[in-house]
Amino acid sequence: MLYTVIKKNSYQDSINLMLLTNSINTIAGITKCSIMMGTAANKDILKNGGLLTAEAESAAPSDMVIVVETADKQIIETVLSEADKFLNDLAVKTKSTGIENVTSLDAALEEMPDANLALFSIPGEYAADEIEKALDKGLNVFSFTDNISLEDEVRLKKKAHEKGLLLMGPDCGTGIISSIPIAFTNVVKPGNIGIVGASGTGIQEVTTIIDRLGGGVVHAIGTGGRDLNEAVNAITVRDAILGLELHEPTDVIVVISKPPAPKVRDEIVELLHSLSKPVVAIFLGEKPDHHEGNVYLAHTLEETAKIAVDLAKNRTVKPNYIEEINYEIKTPLAPEKTVKGLYSGGTLGAEAAMLITEALGLGKLIKQEGYLLNAKGYEIMDLGDDIYTQGKPHPMIDPEVRINKIREYAKDENTGVILLDCVLGYGSHPDMAGALAGAIKKAIQTAKENGRELYFVATVCGTEHDPQNYQAAIKTLKECGVLVEESNAKTVRLALKLKGIDFKEADKYVVEKQVAKKALPEVSDSVIDLLNSKPRIVNIGLASFTESILTYGGSAVQYDWKPAAGGDKRLIKILNALAKIAEIETANNEVIDRMKSSQPFLIDVVPAKSVIEILNNKVLLHAGPPIEYKNMTGPMQGSCIGAVLFEGWAQDENSARELLEKGGVKFSPCHHVNAVGPMGGITSGNMPVMVVENKLDGSIAYCIMNEGIGKVLRFGAYSEEVLTRLRWMRDSLGPVLSQALKRKEGGLNLNVLIAKAITMGDEFHQRNIAASLIFLKEITPLITELDIDQKEKYSVIKFLADTDQFFLNVMMAAGKSIVDCARKVTSGTVVTTMARNGQNFGVRISGMGDEWFTAPVNTPNGLYFTGYSEEDANPDIGDSAITETVGVGAMAMVAAPGVTRFVGAGGFHDALKVSNEMDKICIANNSNWSIPTWDFKGACLGIDARKVVETGITPLINTGIAHKNAGVGQIGAGTVRAPLACFEKAVIAYAKKLGIEVE
Questions:
Q1: Which helix H or strand E contains 219, and what residues bound it?
Q2: Using an 8 Å Cβ cutoff, are 955 and 891 in contact?
Q3: Residue 396: how many CB atoms within 10 A of its CB?
Q4: Phi-psi region of 331 (alpha: psi -120 to 50; beta: other; left: phi over 0)
Q5: Where are the domains positioned within the chain?
Q6: Would the CATH topology of 101-322+524-566 be identical to that of 338-480+491-496?
Q7: CATH fold for domain 338-480+491-496
Q8: Is 805 left (phi over 0), alpha (psi -120 to 50) or beta?
Q9: 822-993: CATH number
Q10: pTM for the complete prediction?
Q11: Per-residue pLDDT tens for 399-449?
Q12: If residue 296 lies in a helix (H) or strand (E), which one and from where to where?
């Protein structure tokens, strides 16, 4: 059976419709389908194919006709859905073999729809909101980012758990997912050990030792150092452990933690006893004296790695894993000499503090202002602590903080040993050993010169596969006098041995523990997917983090993040609050639907006063937001003088000026009376205006007609030549076009005309030649049929043929009818007006109705006619930005490569760049106006004030440039940016209206 759908006034290029037809014909259940415009020729094709129905026969040429032959009527909804989807995105997307760079999370997910992990390395002050956005998009999160409040961490981890996602971090420096190194990670051989670590360098130390012992790691899930805090309650640790329990390739689970909250620690151990797999656990700060059943409790990171390798290789766990120090110490340091530790890795520092504290009886570990130990002259510092990394690179990247501390401690006469870690791997400094070598050599030399002994003792945390070269790092350190040991624990033992203390470990044995195993919670599909596949990562921040991902078989999209709203926290807070209000998206989509569904028709040309009541008095309309005559710039005042002379309210320039200056003429913005006006926008009662009706809802819009180029009223000229032309337009052009349009039933369908012209190189602000010629093609037959003098016909047709920009004013009226229809939706953040009066740029948004939000207008940049320069230019002026408001003009710069150089935009690639940039601040694309040079993507549609504020990208406007003095006229053409402040004011006002705290 044949089913027919007619989409009224929905023009599409025939090639697009052929492609769409081919796509639809692949849908199961469709016998045959054809989608065409309703032209006579196409009806013949439908007839020959046996698809011409009565409905299709009655279709107009501007109607899209969809005819489907199918036995299933329900399939028509599928066809319409697929057609809408196809027409809304005709862009031909090229598949990239390399990494893609994008500037938003949405763009990243468009590039990688199956992404399952967001990797953050952005400033912590902005991170909580960005992480929440990623979670809301269904992404697991790995947050290398630190400086996130505990309150935010708790909130976000609870949210992640509820969504079945893992939030690794914040301050998660290290991770391995499916053997892919992530962030500050070493290259470790794949294997059967899975690690959950509430630490970064703890993971690195354990994994690198495992690698050097011949073992391998499949997963190392970092959780952030605070996960076992009582407030966080080990949310990520628990979910990760459960994931590894169900991960078949994992045979041994390792849990690494900085000192945990006692209650949380006990609950985690209870969970571990319920697992089916053997577990090695280390809670730094504890000194266990036995193992419990299948849970092996380690004292040091070195011991942790060695037990894990033995278990992974099905070997018996030894009672003791301590080995001899590689250095023989003949003369211990004097008793007053102390040990200082300068660690880039917090967990390595914590382990050092623990071992020294135990050996010397210095009490418990601390975490205060970067210190892990600060007692009796013994100091261990975590230089990766938030206090040192706020606004600065991590010490694994930048050696500056550590070099300064080396110099400081070396001057302390009581310093006997300085402990260091040198952490290799992706993300770390390319040669940290070399970077520290100079400071170390100088410190040792200075101490010798002062008759003091100063030892540097270090560990290199790395593998032979790391990019920095493990052996080379050891060699560099040794060459500058550093004593290097194989593990951090051995390094600390060496430092103690220098003090004459021989550190020993007691033997540990397995003690059977009777524990009733509890039923384990279910693990989400998202976590299972993450652990059983190569990670598909949106990398948000440090581009270098993608290197290891791609090198070892993962996939990534690089999101080149920058702070929203230029980093203005007040605006960021407002934007985030607005983003959580679902009704805004609903309203915005309704506004967009109205714009896209609009059907503007040019129906008449009439005297302005016949349709705009206030013009029956001494009132002039002007462009832009409200302004008084005294504040108008030269060209707008010149236009006012010309209008006064045209109306006969004054007989010469001087008397016209006097009338205007004394307030004898009142003013109103064009936009307040359903009108728009180019440049000065000055419209008086006897000027003819084009009437455009939006047949979607009956909205009516008016605009005066284009006068041509040169000395014209809209640019502030008011000579007799200008006035003579205006009188001819009043007495001849307007009436002739009015009569002609009345012969066109329903008027002239502007959507069809615009759709055709945009494929011919028009953008409808600076370039309108194609549209003007199509208009001429449509109107000329109607004019020739009129019963009027042939000379008058000729003069009208000749004027239209000579006026390349004639359609600009038609487009402006069409744009006004579209936005006024859309403005009937009184919610949302879509920009519904952009206009300039030479002093201020004004915008209006859907959610704030008629309220203007203004900021000082900019002066255009562009090309100038011979003899003129930027010094002569008037600030931006006119209502013609209505074209950009509806998505054309500079928004569609890519459609008009022929005009780009004229407006100073460069060549085609610059035009493409402009349209791509404008697309980022719009909500949708208008499939009615498809652009061939943009891979048939529809013109931008729906500038979102929030996106403007968030990105800092302001709408670009194509514009003519008027001389700043009245009477001179146009002196060039170019582009101008809307001021950001307008949009900021609008967003703040709307937030306040919705009850959002804006201060």
A1: strand 217-222
A2: yes
A3: 26
A4: beta
A5: 2-88, 101-322+524-566, 338-480+491-496, 599-817, 822-993
A6: yes
A7: Rossmann fold (3.40.50)
A8: alpha
A9: 3.90.1700.10
A10: 0.78
A11: 989 999 999 999 999 999 999 999 999 888 899 999 999 999 999 999 999
A12: strand 295-297
